[in-house]
Structures are given as structure tokens and as C-alpha cells.
Amino acid sequence: MSIEKMIAEHPEVGGEDNPSLGMAVRHAMHCAAICNSCADACSAEDMDMRRCIRLCMDCSDVCTATYRVASRRTDHNRQLIRTMLAACIEACDICRAECETHDHAHCHRCAAMCSECSVDCREALIMLNQEVHAEA
């Protein structure tokens, strides 16, 4: 199953091809799960991981909200999608920076996923901004 195809098949997308948005949605879904799992793994560590847990949980919640909003294409609420993508980029960058400070495999995996998600959300944001300029 492909979320990219699901978005492309939406009746109001009308053949509009924005694969970068589909990739951002996919990676936001994955990032939400990875961050949630990392927060749980951090809670089992012997050291104080409160900050990492908090940032992973925040990132998971932002990624979840982002993929949910960005996968809704009825009425093309591009401004809200742009806002959510920007928030996701910020949450992922903050979480990545924190996870990179820890020497745990789960934190390294989380940092890598946050980085991928941030890059994809930036690309989707660029494409959405280009759509606006093309409409004007």
C-alpha cells in the first residue's frame, strides 16, 4: 500500500502530482512511530533521559498531526499544510539534535529518521510554495 498513491488518487487532487508531499507524509508517519519507540526505550535507560523523552514525544505528536493534515486534500488547505510541515521540520530538527547527543542505538536510529523526515518536509514545503507561485 502506498500513501503517495492514495493522495494522488484523491478526486480533488485532479492529477496534481506532488510526490514530495507523499514522501513527507510517509516519513512523518514513520518518524512518529520511531520517536514514540525511542521515548519508550529512553525510559528504560539507567541515566536521566527526561529531555530526550520529552522531545521524542513532542516530535511524535507533531509528526502525527502533520501526516494527518497533509494527507487530507479536500479543499486544498495549503496554508495549514505549509504550517504543519514547518512545525514538523522544527520538531524533527530539535529531536534529532537531542538524540545525537546520546550513545544509544535507538537514539541514533531516531536521529536518522528525524533527519529524513525534516529533509522530506522541506522538499514538500518548497513544492507547495511553488504551486502557490504558479497559481498567481
Plain-language structure description:
This protein has 136 residues and is mainly alpha-helical. It has one domain: Substrate Binding Domain Of Dnak, Chain:A, Domain 2. The chain has 5 helices and no strands. The protein has helices spanning 3-8, 19-43, 50-70, 78-99, 105-135. Helix 2 packs antiparallel against helix 3 and helix 2 runs antiparallel to helix 5. The chain is elongated, with a radius of gyration of 16 Å. The termini are far apart. This is Four-helix bundle copper-binding protein. Pfam families: Csp. InterPro entries: Csp_YhjQ, YHJQ-like.
What are the defining features of this structure?
136 residues; mainly alpha; Substrate Binding Domain Of Dnak, Chain:A, Domain 2; YHJQ-like; Csp_YhjQ; Four-helix bundle copper-binding protein
Question: Layout of SSEs?
Answer:
Elements: H1 3-8, H2 19-43, H3 50-70, H4 78-99, H5 105-135
Helix pairs in contact: 2-3, 2-4, 2-5, 3-4, 4-5
Give me the CATH architecture, please.
Answer: Up-down Bundle
Largest β sheet strand count, sense and barrel closure: none
CATH class: Mainly Alpha
Query: Which class best fits the helix and strand makeup?
Result: mainly alpha
- Percent of residues in β-strands: under 5%
How many whole angstroms does the radius of gyration measure?
16 Å
Percent in helix: over 70%
Organism: Croceibacterium selenioxidans
Pfam families: Csp
InterPro entries: Csp_YhjQ, YHJQ-like
Protein name: Four-helix bundle copper-binding protein
Task: Offer a concise description of the structure.
This protein has 136 residues and is an all-alpha fold.
